[in-house]
Write a structure and sequence with these properties.
Blueprint lengths: L14 H5 L3 E10 L4 E17 L5 E4 L9 H4 L3 E3 L12 E15 L6 E9 L18
Length: about 140
């Protein structure tokens, strides 16, 4: 987006960018294997992300790659989304919506079997370069 002489470009502190409806982003995996991790990068940044777990296995949602965490299994810098007990279909799906400024979300499968998930994000008009990469306590330490 070009810079407006009166208003400038949207940045991370631009309230209106979070109040208006976000642009849709859809993705996911039909076969996230055991030990695998998918990275979803949002440029421009997302104001909300909803993850749907359609598989039987639980998945983990984090804001840093689990390989970059000091102690991923014991630090709990992730959210665990339980799997479904339904045999087939989407009726048994579990989901969580995360509200906040996000430029990356990582979905990992710590279980022994493959699983499937979908992700929906509301994208703002704020360039990801406007936001620092989150690190430190509560994210990767």
């Amino acid at each position: 987006m070009g810079r407006n002489a009166n208003w400038g470009t949207p940045g991370v502190n631009n309230v209106g960018s979070y109040q208006m409806a976000g642009l849709p982003y859809l993705s996911g995996s039909e076969n996230l294997d055991s030990g695998e991790e998918d990275r979803h990068t949002f440029d421009p940044i997302a104001k909300a992300v909803t993850v749907f777990n359609h598989g039987h296995q639980h998945i983990r949602i984090a804001f840093a790659a689990t390989g970059a965490m000091n102690t991923p299994a014991t630090s709990h810098h992730f959210i665990t989304l339980s799997g479904t007990s339904a045999e087939a279909g989407l009726s048994g799906s579990t989901s969580i919506t995360l509200n906040g400024r996000m430029k990356d979300v990582y979905i990992s499968n710590p279980a022994a079997l493959a699983t499937r998930y979908e992700i929906y994000a509301e994208i703002t008009n704020i360039a990801s370069g406007e936001m620092l990469t989150p690190t430190g306590s509560g994210v990767s330490d």
